[in-house]
Amino acid sequence: MPLTSLWRDASRTTPAPAPPADIDRTMVPRHVAFIMDGNGRWARQRGQPRLFGHRAGTQNLRRILETCGARGVEVVTIYAFSTENWGRPQDEVTGLFQILSEAIVLEAPALHARGVQIRHLGSMAGIPDRLAGRIKDAIRLTALNERLILNVAFNYGARAEIVEAVRKLVTAGTPVEAIDEAAISANLYTAGLPDPDLIVRTAGEFRLSNFLLWQAAYAEYYSTPTCWPDFDEPELDRAMAAYAARRRKFGGVPDADG
Ligand code: IPE
Ligand code: IPE
Ligand code: MG
Question: Which domains does the chain have, with CATH numbers?
Fold first, then answer.
């Protein structure tokens, strides 16, 4: 199955649907992060190879990004490839890189036209030159856009990110007393961005798998049994409604309980 453009897909003739009336507009998460899991299981359920699931999962991004934008989300982070995913069979790793490479070529201009700023969270170490070049081109192309920030966590590991941040501080000769939470945050890949408010994981798992460990300190979590390629607008709205019903306390005592 070839990758078709997320935005120019002929089957998509209508804009993202309006939000259900019961969504509390005051509780829209600024930053939503997705652990896009279950592509392999989705493919297996259909008697297809795992890469078929990864293609379908990549194509699913269009509607999710469109709907996030329509709901007022400012930052979307997607977990595309973890540092641990190198441990998968070589043909799956190569296939994932190929799919991402194709997706960048197809999608970057359309994302750019829609005011999406693409960022990369992760390391370029070990990434084939051609793919690394395409990622850098997409970042450069969209750098000044302000409508929605899309962080692509690719070759990303949260522990490695924290180690790298500490190394940067040490290399810069930062005095011990200046190494605080703000200094570490400022040296993460997400420097300057709000922490994720909502982390959604598909395919029924309840773990972070080395994703945004530092930034997720006070995130709200949502898990659904639905595999990522089937995670659609109503699913997203259910996650947003669950978020709107949460009471975030950040370690304090809300007024009503005082
Ligand atoms: C998530 O789907 C995508 C990546 C990790 C790249 P999986 O490939 O992990 O799917 P399952 O968990 O095997 O079903
Ligand atoms: C997390 O999914 C990584 C991505 C979604 C890219 P995995 O499928 O790799 O995580 P585990 O192995 O189930 O923890
Ligand atoms: Mg998985």
Answer: 3-8+28-244 (3.40.1180.10)
